[in-house]
Amino acid sequence: MVRKRAAKPKGARRKLDDYETPSVDTERVCRFIKFRGPILEPASGSGRMARALLTWAGKKVTTADLKRGQDFLKRTKIWKGDIITNPPYHKGMADAFVQHALKLADGRVAMLLEIKYLAGQKRAKFYNTCKPEAVIVIPNRVYFFAGGKQITSQFYSHCWVVWPSRTLRGKGTRTEIYWAEDEYG
Question: What is the value of pTM for the model shown?
Fold first, then answer.
């Protein structure tokens, strides 16, 4: 049996993987998780997610972005709150962001990731040592924005993966799986 390859997205990736997250998809994580704040959004781009976090989580949001010369992966100072972002995926950046956020955050870490991030032998080992407290499955495609315009063709499914605060990580965490409501239904 010959398997067909999934269609690849057309066009080049945006510089610095700058894809803005719609407010409705940021709201999804806030419906299930109570963030204690303050919140760091380390891949903030235009600030779309930060504005949604301020609205939905009601917490102070500090932003950082590589375009402004703030390289999250070079940050060494512990963050006394939660880290929430849609990390860049290109060249293993999502893995790097997750690992670095877990080192820095005293609070929760929430990452908007492709569903495929949950699979694989390497990640199975990681998840067995640092289990997330929640996976929030997004039932429909996330239609990101690029340069202020919504991208109407998407090829990947996403979920929010949320790790507990530092004091609870690795302490028998049980992962809850939630299905977010479809915004159209």
Answer: 0.84
